[in-house]
Specification:
Layout: H1 24-33, H2 37-46, H3 51-62, E1 68-72, H4 76-84, H5 92-98, E2 104-108, H6 109-112, H7 115-131, H8 140-146, H9 160-167, H10 169-177, H11 183-191, E3 198-199, H12 209-214, E4 217-218, H13 220-233, E5 238-243, E6 253-259, E7 265-268, H14 280-283, E8 290-292, E9 311-313, E10 321-327, E11 338-343, E12 350-356, E13 361-368, E14 372-379, E15 382-385, E16 390-393, E17 396-399, E18 405-411, E19 414-416, E20 428-432, E21 441-445, E22 455-458, E23 464-471, E24 480-486, E25 496-499, E26 532-542, E27 545-550, E28 553-555, E29 563-569, E30 572-579, E31 586-591, E32 595-600, E33 609-614, E34 617-620
Parallel strand pairs: 3-4
Antiparallel strand pairs: 1-2, 5-6, 5-8, 6-7, 8-9, 10-13, 11-12, 11-14, 14-15, 14-16, 16-17, 18-31, 19-28, 20-21, 20-23, 22-27, 23-26, 24-27, 25-26, 29-30, 29-32, 32-33, 33-34
Helix pairs in contact: 2-3, 2-7, 9-13
Length: 624
């Protein structure tokens, strides 16, 4: 028999000035609670005879230090009003003024949370853990991190578990009565019931479950948060993953992942796409992927920033990643022990990871393949590049080393694609002779993610059809830039545009944009699933070939503008030439195996375009 001795730790705390018998971590948290200490002690005493729930309460309190509510001093009705109209205000602060909402208030959980709230949260979390059929596959540690937490971000606290268990009672009872159901299946059933969000391109205030359900608008962060609330309340172990910045862009993305009975994680986008479906999080190149955690992470190598301690590096869970561990000699100089890794963006570099000097080696963990990186040094707040740019593929590092000069490199149209190529994958082209497509037949299915430029495919049917169309897959929004149906002589067959009416946010990107001979426009349907665009050919005709271009953005050089070409030389970006195009292009002498970017000097608001030279040709570096 093992005998465990509980040591009484006697501590004096300036905020409470009393003797207590708790371990060091608990005592520190209780001291920070100040006057609210009695509430937290009430929770611990409440579970003194239930060792497992007592451990759960301890877990929450120990990791509560950096948790807080960020709320507005207003009644909910006023807040709902300004949330719905948020997009009409250019500045968030002015929105608070216009709708009579006072400044935000930060309330730390240790100082304000009540015993009743924590006890209710713990009891309901244990209830679902014990009742759900997959609960036997969830360890206590996983339970504490993926079901037990009482909050998601900095939202106003509410008894969301009670609300969800009532609202989703039918699904919950279904789960209990079907012992063979998996977490993926349960996750899909719940996700299908969540409201589809109206996407906005600006930060939203941190909202609780009721706010999210009442105001279904926001970004990926809000969609991920709603999934976390709902899934965890029903006992489905779900986490929130994110990439702080896409390669070559200064924005990031968040999504979810559900834990399977085997302990694996399957990603999905809350309130949008289900497990095993394509979405940005599992389909795009990523430099780093982190996971929001309730537990405070103390190892800086596990955190996105040294100040953001509730994150865990989970890049290794995702495909197309390699481990990056380089010797100190890889860098030109060493000033401190802390380094940061940046995915190169020609205009603004983005911090995506940290490492420390251990045994003359810098270990950044896993990073995304085929992304351009550079290592920087931090000293006294100053950031200095200490390595040449490089990219990594299958654990092999490729360095841009500026080899011999190559002349007459042609710079012309810049094909920089949107990150939505996958939105055509699994879509299909169809033909029919009834206008409602009740007699539809398959012409071609887009099984793989298409190229950014022209895709030319043969038609698998030899019949004649009057009506032809492209039908979007789930979550595709029918994002196609150009479609051409060709006859046996490779001549384009014209007709009247037909298809799904409207567009996303009533933009100009309607169904006809797929047939306007302009690849810079595209159809962006309001419906996410199975929207379509096509042609009424007037009479049945045979389709021999289909050409199509997915949603893309083509940038043409302006003959009236001056363009600057930057090159990365000795870890720094320097202007190597300035050119004025003629007939949409210019030529220039550049180094082979060099890294460059092109900047429109006349328009500082436009993007800069990263490229390198391979075999004497320009290769635009796309971030998709």
């Amino acid at each position: 028999m093992k005998i465990y001795h509980i040591l009484s730790v006697i501590m004096f705390c300036s905020s409470c000035m009393q003797i207590a018998t708790y371990n060091n971590e608990i005592e520190q948290a209780l001291c920070k609670a100040g006057k609210n200490r009695t509430e937290l002690e009430h929770v611990l005493n409440h579970y003194k005879d239930d060792s497992l729930k007592h451990l759960a309460a301890t877990y929450l309190i120990i990791n509560m230090g950096d948790k807080y509510t960020l709320e507005h001093n207003t009644i909910w009705e006023d807040e709902a009003t300004y949330l719905y109209r948020w997009n009409k205000i250019n500045n968030n602060d002015s929105a608070l003024i216009v709708y009579n909402v006072e400044k935000t208030i930060k309330k730390y959980d240790l100082e304000y949370i009540t015993a009743d709230y924590l006890i209710n949260n713990i009891n309901l979390a244990f209830k679902v853990w014990e009742e759900i059929p997959w609960g036997k596959h969830i360890s206590f540690d996983v339970f504490c991190e993926e079901i037990l937490p009482y909050r998601v971000a900095h939202e106003p606290l509410e008894n969301w578990r009670e609300r969800i268990l009532v609202s989703f009672a039918d699904l919950y009872q279904y789960f209990i009565s079907h012992p063979d159901i998996t977490t993926e299946e349960a996750c899909t059933m719940v996700n299908n019931q969540l409201p589809r969000f109206a996407w906005v391109n600006y930060p939203m205030p941190s909202m609780n479950y009721s706010m999210l359900m009442t105001t279904p608008r926001g970004t990926c962060d809000e969609m991920s948060a709603l999934a976390l609330f709902t899934m965890r309340a029903l006992g489905i172990p779900v986490v929130s993953d994110f990439t702080p910045f896409w390669p070559y862009r200064n924005i990031g993305h968040a999504w979810n992942a559900v834990r399977t009975e085997k302990g694996e994680y399957v990603s999905f986008m809350g309130a949008e796409t289900n497990p095993n479906e394509l979405h940005l999080g599992n389909n795009m190149l990523k430099s780093k992927v982190y996971r929001h955690t309730f537990k405070t992470q103390t190892d800086n190598n596990c955190t996105y920033t040294t100040k953001m301690n509730g994150t865990l590096d989970v890049t290794h869970y995702y495909k197309n990643t390699s481990k990056l561990n380089v010797p100190i000699s890889f860098c030109s100089s060493i000033k401190t022990d802390t380094f940061l890794l940046q995915s190169i963006n020609s205009k603004n570099n983005s911090i995506i990871g940290y490492a420390t000097n251990k045994n003359d080696s810098l270990n950044f963990g896993f990073v995304g393949d085929n992304v351009t990186y550079q290592i920087f040094d931090i000293q006294n707040g100053n950031i200095e590049a200490v390595s040449s740019p490089f990219f990594i593929t299958k654990n092999e590092i490729h360095i841009y080393e500026n080899e011999g000069i190559i002349g007459n490199i042609k710079i012309d149209n810049i094909a920089v694609t949107d990150p939505f190529l996958y939105r055509m994958q699994n879509g299909q082209f169809e033909g029919a002779n009834n206008s409602d497509f009740s007699d539809k037949e398959l012409l071609f299915r887009v099984n793989d993610m298409p190229n950014a430029q022209n895709n030319i495919v043969g038609c698998i049917s030899t019949k004649k059809y009057r009506y032809v169309r492209f039908v979007s897959p789930q979550n595709g929004h029918c994002n196609v830039a150009e479609i051409a149906f060709l006859d046996k002589n490779n001549h384009q067959i014209n007709g009247n545009v037909i298809g799904t009416e409207g567009s996303w946010y009533n933009s100009t990107m309607t169904k006809d944009k797929a047939f306007d001979n302009d690849i810079s426009t595209f159809f962006d349907a309001q419906e996410s699933d199975y929207a379509w665009t096509g042609l009424d050919l007037g009479s049945p005709q045979r389709i021999y070939t289909i050409k199509y271009v997915p949603r893309t953005a083509n940038h043409t050089l302006n003959d009236n503008h001056i363009y600057e070409v930057y090159q990365n030389i000795n870890t720094e970006w320097k202007v190597v030439d300035k050119k004025k195009p003629k007939n949409g292009h210019f030529t220039i002498q550049l180094h082979q195996n060099g890294l460059y970017y092109l900047r429109d000097a006349n328009d500082g608001t436009t993007s800069d375009f990263l490229f390198d030279i391979k075999n004497g040709n320009v290769r635009w570096i796309k971030w998709e």
